[in-house]
Amino acid sequence: MSKVTRVVIPAAGLGTRFLPATKAQPKEMLPVVDKPAIQYVIEEAIRNDLNNILVVTGRGKRSIEDHFDQSFELEQLLIESGRDADLELVRAISKLGTIHYIRQGRPLGLGHAVLAAKAHVGSEPFVTMLADDIMAENSDLLSNMLALHDTTGCSVLSLMEVPREQIRLYGCAEVVQKGDGTVQVVSVVEKPEPSEAPSTLAITGRYLFTPEIFGAIEATPSGKNGEFQLTDAIARLSQTQPVLGVIFDRGRYDIGDKLEYLRAVVEIALGREDIGPAFAAELRGILAREFQTS
Ligand code: G1P
């Protein structure tokens, strides 16, 4: 088992890519089938024995705390009406480990959000998980990152090939192959123009950091869009210690993007034992009708 137990989940962003749904609701609480996105992320953390969870929240994000808290009135109602299965579901959520919260204050960028976790994390390595990236339940990305950290002691990024025109949406990493089959990051740049991107490897929403990332964030001036960019701090960190990468190619849904969100809902619903078969039948019907009329 990995020695890493701490995870920081930045959840203070405004979610403007998903308006109007996110006008008065945190994007992290968007339901994917019947669970909010952030619950998938926290369940993934717990599956990987990351039990010390810190969520960095901000204004308008109270419903995240309420969701993971015990809901006494609701439990009482479910007990009285004999709805045991629902009661079990609700109780399971509040038992998902101890979740700590800290507020970011002004949303000054992802680097700034991670820096808000400094006092909580201390001098331990930790994982950062972005709540708008949710991973398929059978994904081994995070466990591979933890294993690589355990053998090397290094920071590890999650990297995915994307079409060149999409690299402007991501942090972009240039890597070199090492003899042992792993890759080392030689440069990173936040959201480059496709024509200037040094590669088509995108940094996705799982990071494993040594605590030196905090010093790197503190030493890094604001960057793209005037925000303190985590990617810029990673660039600085990689100048003082190796930063490695795990390249993966499946199982990720960026639910901040409307089309990817729909794909997540459909694929996750189809994979569910309880509703999957009935939903598949519905979907076949819809597609057959669409086919006939188009
Ligand atoms: C953030 C990071 C970016 C990273 C991306 C992964 O961007 O700044 O480097 O590639 O998350 O999803 P955002 O999606 O918040 O614009």
Q: Approximately what portion of the residues adopt beta-strand conformation? A: 15-25%
Strand order of the largest sheet: 8-11-9-10-12
Given as residue ranges, the uncertain stretches (5+ residues, pLDDT < 50) are none
Number of domains: 2
Termini separation (Å)? Answer: 53 Å
Structural class: alpha/beta
Major β-sheet annotation: 5 strands, mixed, barrel
- What are the distinct ligands in this entry? 1-O-phosphono-alpha-D-glucopyranose
What string gives the helices and strands in order? EEEHEHHHEHHEEHEEEEHHEEHH
CATH class of the largest domain: Alpha Beta
Output the CATH homologous superfamily of the largest domain.
Spore Coat Polysaccharide Biosynthesis Protein SpsA, Chain A
Number of strands: 13
Kindly report the CATH topology of the largest domain.
Spore Coat Polysaccharide Biosynthesis Protein SpsA, Chain A
Could you provide a short overview of the structure?
It is built from 11 helices and 13 strands. With 294 residues, the protein is an alpha/beta fold. The chain folds into 2 domains: 6-256, Alpha-Beta Complex (Spore Coat Polysaccharide Biosynthesis Protein SpsA, Chain A); 258-294, no CATH class.
What can you see in these coordinates?
There is one protein chain. The protein has 294 residues and is α/β, with parallel strands linked by helices. It folds into 2 domains: 6-256, Spore Coat Polysaccharide Biosynthesis Protein SpsA, Chain A, CATH 3.90.550; 258-294, no CATH class. Helices cover 37% and strands 22% of the residues. The chain is built from 11 helices and 13 strands. The strands form 3 sheets. Strands 8-11-9-10-12 form a 5-stranded mixed beta barrel. β9 and β10 form a beta hairpin. α3 runs antiparallel to α4 and α8 crosses α9 (230-240). The radius of gyration is 20 Å and the shape is globular. The model has no long low-confidence stretch (mean pLDDT 91).
